[in-house]
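I am writing to request your help with a piece of structural work I have in hand. A protein sequence and the structure tokens that stand for its backbone fold form the material at issue. Please examine both parts with care and let me know of anything in them that strikes you as inconsistent. The record follows directly beneath this note.
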Amino acid sequence: MKYIDEYRDPTVAEALVQKLAQQVTRPWVLMEICGGQTHTLMRYGIDELIPKQVEVVHGPGCPVCVTPLEIVDKAIEIASRPDVIFVSYGDMLRVPGSSSDLFRVKAQGGDVRIAYTPMEALKIARANPERKVVFFAIGFETTAPANAMTVWQARREGLKNFSLLVSHVLVPPAIRMLLDSPVNRVQGFIAPGHVCAVMGYRDYETLAAQYHVPFVVGGFEPVDLLEAISMLVAQLEEGRAEVENQYGRAVSRDGNQPAQHILEQVFETADRKWRGIGSIALSGWRLRPEFDDWNAEKVFGLSETDVPEPPECISAQVLQGLKKPVDCPAFCTRCSPETPLGAPMVSAEGACSAYYRYRRHLVTA
């Protein structure tokens, strides 16, 4: 199949690995932002194929993983109400809150439903006018346009029994936070292809110029990632700090402008807390005031809280590229997909989940 098989071609992959071996002359630390890219790296053993001088660490690009405890607790509070149908993507159900999770709410009789698109939640609201239907709108810039269109459509129809619980975060402010950190190790970034497909990559050009750090917009298949790594190493070895686009088949510099337009109509930027990391200035979106009637936090009068993370969980350090999942003493023992301490172990894009699924032999003895 075009654009799949050719980007999994072992001959091409082997040639890129050999090219990397010829390019690299010193140690470099690179970060992939997207959790989907993390799983590709682990599944195909790319981090073991590339030269040892090139270390790939994992960034805060898993939307489930960075959804803060406070928002999960709010979701649980809403979903526990008898008059509510709570709709969510499936991998949010096992994410632990401070004392429970949505899966447990469902098991105890709460009407918690799984959807693949937010438009499904809108259909549920139309079919159940006597119930309040809430969609858990999480994610990066990738999922935001569909969520924006859903609430825009609900307002257009006057559908007052529908609302969004919003926890949208933005990639560039998180990268800025990493680069400003005194313990930052990252020297080059694989920018997430799906985010850039929506937003373009102008913001990354600003970051590259300010911090003199190279970026390569990368895809999600093995050859995509190997090529992106090779392009980053080439820049680093040559002393360049530019934005290059490996994922040209899906990404343009300006992105999807109609999607950006609906985002501007529905959302405004705001400070946002990231799970385990803390608040990052202007790193998220919230609904504009004109959509207060469809804002679940306003509809249900939810108060702001501050919930501490489990002290044993090191997910914050994993999400900042400071540690790997196997560095955690609880990994694969007290923390597993069945008994997770943190979201990265249960998310389909979580780094801990990827290591558990593909690298369990590294921690069994």
Observations:
- The chain has a mean pLDDT of 94.
- The chain has two domains: 1-314, 315-362.
- The longest strand covers residues 278-287.
- The two ends are 41 Å apart (CA to CA).
